[in-house]
Amino acid sequence: MAVSDWQAFITQTDARMGELRGGIPGVAKGFHEIARSAIGAGALDSRTKELIALAIGITVRCDGCLAYHARAAAKYGASREEIMEAIGVAVYMGGGPSMIYGAEALAAYDSFTEGDKG
């Protein structure tokens, strides 16, 4: 699926995820703890971890992963150049499909930084 409005996509996905979390609260709580622990700063900072997560999202072709991790990478101060390099690693690991999803990831990142190309 090609997402044209990443902000609206996250709003819609948040609503759907809220309903899912309500139906499986224990699983949702456990997943939240995994996410919090995995992304928290340690030997790698949170920005680097979000770039890794974005690259993985590209290789597994997960639109939700692109949206959430592009937004988080922007929040943690990732530059567009860092996003491009993460996309490059994903393409190396995932081939042609990752090239397509890399373009989607860049569009998602740009939507959360108002298209700042610098």
Key terms:
mainly alpha; Carboxymuconolactone decarboxylase family protein; AhpD-like; 118 residues
Summarize the structure.
Helices cover 79% and strands 0% of the residues.
Secondary structure elements and pairings:
Layout: H1 6-23, H2 25-39, H3 46-59, H4 63-75, H5 80-112
Helix pairs in contact: 1-2, 3-4, 3-5, 4-5
Organism: Stappia taiwanensis
Protein name: Carboxymuconolactone decarboxylase family protein
InterPro entries: AhpD-like, AhpD_core, CMD-like
Describe the structure.
79% of the residues lie in helices and 0% in strands. The protein is an all-alpha fold and 118 residues long. The chain has a domain of 68 residues: AhpD-like. Helix 1 packs across helix 2, helix 3 crosses helix 5 and helix 4 packs across helix 5. It is globular, with a radius of gyration of 14 Å.
CATH homology superfamily name of the domain at 45-112 = AhpD-like
Into which percentage range does the β-strand content fall?
under 5%
Helix content: over 70%
For the record, the CATH architecture of the domain at 45-112 stands as Up-down Bundle
- Whole-number mean pLDDT: 94
How would you name the oligomeric state of the polypeptide chains in this document? single chain
Integer-rounded radius of gyration: 14 Å
Count of β-strands: 0
- CATH fold type of the domain at 45-112: AhpD-like
Give unreliable regions as ranges: none
Q: Any idea what the shape is?
A: globular
Q: According to CATH, what is the class of the domain at 45-112?
A: Mainly Alpha
Which structural class do the helices and strands define? mainly alpha
Pfam family, one: CMD
Protein name: Carboxymuconolactone decarboxylase family protein
InterPro entries: AhpD-like (IPR029032), AhpD_core (IPR004675), CMD-like (IPR003779)
Organism: Stappia taiwanensis
